[in-house]
Write a structure and sequence with these properties.
Strand order of the largest sheet: 1-2
Number of strands: 2
Shape: elongated
Structural class: mainly alpha
Strand content: 5-15%
Number of helices: 7
Number of domains: 2
Distance between the termini: 28 Å
CATH superfamily of the largest domain: Winged helix-like DNA-binding domain superfamily/Winged helix DNA-binding domain
Helix content: 55-70%
CATH architecture of the largest domain: Orthogonal Bundle
Length: 178
Amino acid sequence: MKNYQNSDYALNKMNEDAIVYRTATGIVKITLADYLAENPDKTEADFRALKELSDEDYRVQDRDDYNQTWKNVSIHGLDETEACSVPSPEDEVIERPERAAKEQQRRKLAKQALETLSTVQRRRYLLHVIDGLSTRDIAEREGVSHIAIVYSLELAEKKIKKLPMKIDLPKRLIFHVR
């Protein structure tokens, strides 16, 4: 439990009969009895709904904090990478129209590929690939099993791969089941 001392999500989640949150001066714990005493027109079901909401808010905050931590990487040694290089003005003037034409063609092919998918597959595929949601998050959002989402995404990927066109999707669009 020591690892949970710094996590608001864990503090709240581990106290099943209370809503717990941290303030600048300490930790506040609201029990069911406290809630009902302060809100006589409310019921235990209202408290449970509020508890679920606070758990979900803390879970999302915890996940976002974790994801942000992974973005905070050291820049030591980045000066040698291509990501930090800047193209010359001549290259920008000469290559910009070519890149724009290639990008337009790629978008057209990507649109055609997505049109081969069913409405459900397209929605799930875009949520997963573009929005970055995990298969479990999509399953929770749609109220279906995790396996149903995985299967749907695998079928969508197979349909896209079967297309005769050559589409060079950027790395962020490469399908990975999470």
